[in-house]
Amino acid sequence: MRVIKKIESKRITRDSDIKKAADQVAKEMNLKRNVSRGWIWRWKKANGITYRIPTKVGRKTKDTDDDIKAMETYEAQLEEIHLQMVDPSTIWNMDQTSVALQNPYRKTLALKGSNDVPIIQPPGDRENMTVLLMVAADGTKHPAVIVFKGAKKTGVLSTNVMKKLLIPENVIVKSNRKGWWTNDFDLVYLKEAFPVSDTQVTQILLRDQCKAHLSQESADLLEERCVHQVLIPKGKTGDKQPLDVGVNGPFKAIMRRNYHEWMDHQTAVAKSGYLKKPSRQDFVDFVSAAWNEVSPLIIESSFVKAGVLPEPTYMLADYVPDGNAPFEFDFSE
């Protein structure tokens, strides 16, 4: 019970604490016994206790009244989309995700009894780049946008560096001092993603409440282009944002696989004896190949799982209206 109480008090608890508590109980009861490792193992098994990695304190577990109201509003907007049978090709989700520049696995196979487990993968602190993805509910993909960290002095990649990069059609490369998605990037991207047209069709853009998404400039620009921005409630993107639900995970998994395939075929070694780090061109190729491999079916399924679509598009085909007539929306309620 003493060990259980310590665990419940959220303090770090080790096998040595179990031994200490058992020795103390034995002393109080005038028992002479040696608490062995085997006894500790059996005690932990009987009480359902094992070693775990501590987790960080996350968001609040109980929703406030404002949270509940925001969620009700969002669910009402989704219901409006379902009732009007909105063309899935006009429902978009846009999100930025952080991708590790070095994607090593934490463990590797090695011979038993070895004192050292050396590896030659590139060392150093893990650095990240930002990748923006934008998809439609019918599986359409916009080019992925990579935001690299720029030079320390200028804050951007030089013209010479950009000229040397071979950038595929499904990738766009940007840079700034921190490698983050900014409001300026957001405005430029929205203008290109939703160009002004004579036959303007109303579209829907689902986004999280990132600071760059909440600017008045972005809201005005989207309104001018007949794009209704629907903001996903805070703390709910893991369940309600299609990209978080079913796209970012496979995309990053493919990125990691590409990284390790690159390492398997890499022979260039630095003076330190480690493999040379991938170049910017390598990362552009990683992103391009991974984004190309994410299938429309994966994207459609993520919209269904997030509750944006009631069914996959191939099941909705008979219900989607034909023609170019714009849809009417009313999200004021």
Automatic annotation (TrEMBL):
Residues 127-303 form the DDE-1 domain. One of its GO terms (cellular component) is nucleus. GO terms for molecular function: DNA binding. It comes from the Eukaryota. This is DDE-1 domain-containing protein. It comes from Ramazzottius varieornatus. The lineage of its organism: Eukaryota, Metazoa, Ecdysozoa, Tardigrada, Eutardigrada.
